[in-house]
Design a protein that fits this description.
The complex is a heterodimer of chains A (306) and B (261).
Chain A lengths: L5 E3 L2 E3 L3 E3 L21 E3 L16 E4 L2 E4 L8 H15 L5 E5 L4 H10 L8 E5 L9 H6 L1 H14 L4 E5 L6 H10 L4 E4 L3 E3 L2 E2 L4 E2 L6 E4 L4 H14 L5 E4 L5 H9 L4 E4 L1 H5 L3 H16 L14
Parallel strand pairs in A: 3-4, 3-16, 4-7, 7-8, 8-9, 9-10, 10-15, 15-16
Antiparallel strand pairs in A: 1-2, 5-6, 6-14, 11-14, 12-13
Chain B lengths: L2 E14 L2 E7 L12 E4 L11 E4 L2 E3 L2 E7 L3 H7 L6 E8 L12 E6 L3 H10 L6 E6 L8 H4 L12 E5 L6 E2 L2 H11 L5 E5 L2 H13 L4 E4 L15 E3 L5 E3 L6 E3 L6
Parallel strand pairs in B: 8-9, 8-12, 9-10, 10-11, 12-13
Antiparallel strand pairs in B: 1-2, 1-7, 2-6, 3-4, 3-7, 5-6, 13-16, 14-15
Helix pairs in contact in B: 4-5
The chains are: A alpha/beta (306), B alpha/beta (261).
Chain lengths: 306, 261
Amino acid sequence: MINLNTRIDNLMLDNPFLAASGTCGYGTEYSDFVPPEKWGALVLKTVTPKQRDGNKPPRCCETDSGMLNSIGLANCGIELLIKEKMPEFTGKFPNAKPVVSIAGETTEEFVLLTEKLAECKGISAIELNFSCPNVSRGGIHFGADSLSSQEAVKECRKATQLPLWVKISPTVPDPVKIASICMESGANAIVATNTIPGMVVDIWKQKPVLGNIMGGLSGPAIFPVSLRVAYLIAKSIPGITLIGCGGVDSAEKAIQFILAGCSAVEVGTAVFRSPDILYKLIEEVKTYMEKMKYTNVSDFIGKALL
Amino acid sequence: MKKIETGKLIVLKNIATDLTYLKIKIGESAANFTPGNFVTILPPAASGKYLRRPFSLAGVSDGSIELIIKSIGAVTKSLASLAEGAEIEIMGPLGNSYQIPENIKKLWLIGGGTGIASILFLNSLRSNSMDKVLWAGKTKEALPSMDLLRDKQFSHIFKQNIVIATDDGSAGEKGRAAEVLEQWLEKESNPDGIVSCGPHGMMQAVKKIADDKNIPAWFSLEEFMACGTGACAGCVVKGSANSYLKACCDGPVFKSSEVIL
């Protein structure tokens, strides 16, 4: 009997597939295609202390094997999330596991957001977004600085009992160091990784395609880059709880992340392509486990670490 | 309820240079679509593209949805070269619909290029004899021939009230869409409402005319989309309340007063 349960530190999930932040809205947008409780967990769109309009359009375009986005953390703000979005989501889907992604420009803002979430019922974990490339302050700059990361995770840890995950950028010079600092400061898991900064130019208009000029590259193009970062972290920090993220659009890629030491994977851009991809991922990973005679996901976590 | 389903391409016809009509059989759920709604299509493998592409419906008939697409990029080109019988994965209905109030009796519908799609659908369900449709294109080659426009196969969407116009006068009336609209307004009493969909510059010009003359107007806007369901906030357009609106779920149809073009 195959069991797809997986454990993210102290949090049990029914399966290792999570909808990545920014690709499943506030949880309800794709519910016609896949009931949200079918996902291992859903990481909601990042919220900030105040509502944000986001960046100037155009905000996204397709690139070879991927897409570029510069949404710019457009979001409803923490107050509306707590008052409306979360109650709506948990009311409709009481068995789903929502993870709230938060982003601040300073440690104080991260702490404020974490404290506010204590007012909210039904949250499975908090994901600290240390890796958005599309904002001028906070985001990727914050996460690249080990002192800022350390301080923010430490202070957020004091402010909540909920599991804290930290989503790191693949572009930081030393991801192992950042991951290790975050774990020592009280994080329960590291999410490796987020988008990679990039840009494209329209040769007829002779200007950058994106209104924000640059954006974050996601999709199949970034898979090997994210996998490398996950592998490096898993290899260097034995026992760490990792969640893979970046370019997963098949069970085969998800399995690669698991073999490289991840206990679960987040699926992002592939959800835009196939909102019902979860069913395929579950079937395919079961087939793999049958062939390999595994009964639990934990049977093959980190098997490829040399 | 939105659904992902695999339809079967039952008619594919080139109707002008780079314009293709597609009829995709999906069965009962075709009845769920209303004018203004769009679908996203999973790119055919041959296109090498990854993300779904949005297309407004040009009509619904016989358990099928109908599209008119322009071959511009890899996805539209590969769709236009599919063989009849091919399977196409569609997701929909997405977006809002045209909500034209009862008191709008005389409606002018201004479409440019493939922007005509949702206009044809809306026009097909209206029965006001004062309505008329302008289908504007750059040249004769960019639009269907009169023979095609009178072809019985398309009579449900190509109704008799369609007027053709070209920038160079090579077919139909001469002038850009907004210029022809101006001419109509000089000759006739104002319509009760205007609906428009087409290139951005065209809609800007039509909006200016409608706003100046205080004619209620609706615009169906097109943007690059990643999700099509309101999840990603990638397709925003500038709203008049100094905020961004999502073309995919706040629209694609907006009242003139709601948006800045």
